[in-house]
Amino acid sequence: MSAVRVKICGITRVEDALVAAAAGADAIGLVFYAKSPRAVSVEQAKAIIAALPPFVTSVGLFVDMPRSELQRILAEVPLDLLQFHGNESPEDCVGYGRPFIKALRVRPGDDITAAVARYPNASGVLLDTYVPGIPGGTGEAFDWDLVPHDLSKPVVLAGGLTPANVAAAVRQVNPYAVDVSGGVEASKGIKDADKVRAFVGQARLGASGL
After folding, report:
1. 20 to 30 A Cα–Cα from 94, which one of 65, 82, 104, 136?
2. Signal sequence span per UniProt (predicted)?
3. Could you give the CA distance from residue 84 to residue 9 in angstroms, rounded to a whole number?
């Protein structure tokens, strides 16, 4: 089993970003979606990214944002990677001078292989739980048996992951990375340092096969 990468999403404070980095997280996620309780402003995002140590990837999460608005954000915020979490077409995701991953919400009967194939320019795909009307951050897990093991893109597994179940998820799915937000929080948008450290440790434990 290969090493698994860890992304701590929904970061709203510099101190939480530093906890994630110190715990060994490979990436932190910044939510640019006004309806989310974890949404950040341009100023918050700039401060968080400026505080990150080297080799921690900053990921911006967007939901059907108009191109002009997204470009304005990118002109001010030096994001490394874009994460599209809405109904963006393949064409909507390119042209920003940044690599991107596309989130797909999974439910029984979906042809995940075909959905992934629609986004040939994506660096990877994030598989999250389908909940009607909610683009992500539901805190609910989906049936990991639905994930094909021969997808053409690296898989980032999300949806209802916690320190208690991430090792089992990694052993079963063998994803490229895991992504957590609510599962390591003290309250919405505020991370619990002990949960963050436990999550990273359990993800790596799962990847070790133990």
Report:
1. 136
2. none
3. 13
pLDDT band at 207 (very low <50, low <70, confident <90, very high): confident
Q: Which domain, by its residues, includes 154? A: 5-207
Residue in the block written with tokens 């990677």: 81
Q: Whole-model pTM above 0.90?
A: yes
- For residues 37 and 148, give the distance between their C-alpha atoms in angstroms, rounded to a whole number: 32
In 3-state terms, the chain is what percent helix, strand and coil (to 5)?
30, 25, 45
Number of domains comprising the chain: 1
DSSP class per residue in 152-164? SSPEEE-SS--TT
Catalytic residue among 9, 16, 92, 179: 9
9 has catalytic annotation = yes
Lookup: tokens for 72: 């304005």
Residue 17 sits in a domain whose CATH number is 3.20.20.70
- Could you give phi then psi for residue 21, rounded to 5 degrees? -65, -45
